[in-house]
From TrEMBL:
<protein>
    <submittedName>
        <fullName>Uncharacterized protein</fullName>
    </submittedName>
</protein>
<feature type="region of interest" description="Disordered">
    <location>
        <begin position="1"/>
        <end position="40"/>
    </location>
</feature>
<keyword id="KW-0472">Membrane</keyword>
<feature type="transmembrane region" description="Helical">
    <location>
        <begin position="119"/>
        <end position="137"/>
    </location>
</feature>
<keyword id="KW-1133">Transmembrane helix</keyword>
<feature type="transmembrane region" description="Helical">
    <location>
        <begin position="42"/>
        <end position="64"/>
    </location>
</feature>
<feature type="transmembrane region" description="Helical">
    <location>
        <begin position="189"/>
        <end position="209"/>
    </location>
</feature>
<dbReference type="InterPro" id="IPR036259">
    <property type="entry name" value="MFS_trans_sf"/>
</dbReference>
<keyword id="KW-0812">Transmembrane</keyword>
<feature type="transmembrane region" description="Helical">
    <location>
        <begin position="157"/>
        <end position="177"/>
    </location>
</feature>
<feature type="transmembrane region" description="Helical">
    <location>
        <begin position="89"/>
        <end position="107"/>
    </location>
</feature>
Length: 371
């Protein structure tokens, strides 16, 4: 058989492939439906546990919000002896710390490893949650959230820190507007904003300290060298303050039943008698603690000294009246020997409350000239 030339293939079509019938899309052939997968018992229990856990976390956060703020303020008072500077800085830190952590996390997110980034995020969240606990709720203000000695100074520190953050937001908006016309500002926007916010936040602390009224009291401030009350002149013979309350009472465990922060002490003599009045004011972290300590103090009896216990807010007052020579105190002497102590106590209470008044003499306690 001769081999056909290439001209023979002109006009010929390649052989067709056999076609197979396609299955119609809407086939009437019945198909067995797949039964839906039933959720496992563990998946259901896990979902319920997750919901209950979330609700429990919200409840726990709400309960902690009533305890944590005052606890933080109390620890700050204990650590700083309730000094104005210490309490203002502590309140400032409540706001400044989460702000710094969030800023640091945002600035270094692309430059640190995953572990460091997670640590920064975790710390930022925790600090932010603590700061949110200081937000007053319904029918509450900041004085209800933060209580105890130095609370006003603590709140002032928070307020100045919040003011600095507000100023930082204003700076951010201003830089954004300037950046539209100044490319250099737009290129370095993050750096300029970070520096400006840091300066504003740091500057808020010393300004807050300077503008905030004194929170702590020193014995020198409370008890003057010469005290004039009810036309009497009392001369100070001793003054001092100390951390804690060691040495105030012979049995130190009585006042140390709870954590005592600070003790102020002063002693006076009068110009019309030989009576000597000594007062110790012991500071505790809240009013209830002071009342509890006062209730646990036993009555002290002595022929040569009269000991009186009382409270003024979060302070326990220990007062002792006696003759300068240690003589026995008779029933006739008792009213005027106790009189200088009442005057010194009124001085302390009035200074603490910002209203200095003279005590009124009575039948049981009065000056010697009225005897």
């Amino acid at each position: 058989m001769t081999n056909p030339g290439p001209i023979e293939y002109v006009g010929q079509q390649p052989p067709k492939k056999p076609k197979y019938p396609k299955t119609p899309k809407n086939s009437k052939t019945p198909q067995t439906p797949r039964s839906p997968k039933k959720p496992s018992r563990f998946a259901v229990l896990g979902g319920i546990a997750g919901i209950l856990g979330f609700m429990a976390a919200l409840a726990a956060y709400a309960m902690l919000g009533r305890v944590v703020p005052s606890t933080i303020a109390a620890y700050a008072c204990d650590a700083t002896a309730c000094s104005t500077e210490g309490m203002v800085v502590a309140g400032w830190l409540v706001i400044a710390l989460p702000a710094v952590l969030i800023g640091a996390t945002a600035a270094t997110a692309k430059h640190v490893d995953r572990t460091t980034r997670r640590i920064l995020i975790t710390l930022s969240v925790l600090a932010g949650l603590v700061a949110l606990m200081f937000i007053p709720g319904r029918h509450r203000d900041m004085s209800d959230v933060v209580q105890g000695p130095g609370a006003d100074q603590f709140i002032d520190g928070m307020g100045w820190a919040l003011g600095a953050l507000g100023a930082s937001v204003a700076v951010a908006l201003l830089l954004a507007m300037i950046g539209r016309k100044a490319p250099a500002v737009e290129r370095h926007y993050s750096v300029v904003l970070g520096v400006a916010a840091a300066v504003l936040l740091l500057a808020a602390a010393p300004v807050a300290i300077a503008k905030t009224g004194p929170g702590s009291m020193s014995a020198e401030d409370v008890f003057p060298a010469v005290l004039e009350m009810n036309d009497d002149i009392l001369t100070r013979t001793a003054v001092g303050d100390q951390r804690g309350c060691t040495g105030v009472l012979a049995d130190e465990s009585l006042l140390n039943r709870e954590n005592c922060v600070l003790t102020l002490h002063a002693a006076y003599r009068t110009d019309d008698s030989d009576a000597v009045a000594s007062l110790w004011a012991v500071l505790y972290l809240d009013d209830d603690t002071a009342d509890s300590v006062r209730d646990g103090l036993p009555k002290v009896t002595s022929d040569t000294a009269l000991t009186v216990f009382s409270t003024s807010r979060s302070w326990v007052l220990v007062g002792i009246s006696e003759h300068a020579d240690g003589a026995t105190i008779t029933s006739t002497d008792r009213p005027w020997v106790m009189w200088p102590l009442r005057q010194v106590a009124y001085r302390f209470i009035g200074y603490q409350g910002g209203l200095l008044i003279d005590p009124d003499p009575g039948d049981d306690i009065h000056p010697r000239t009225a005897a």
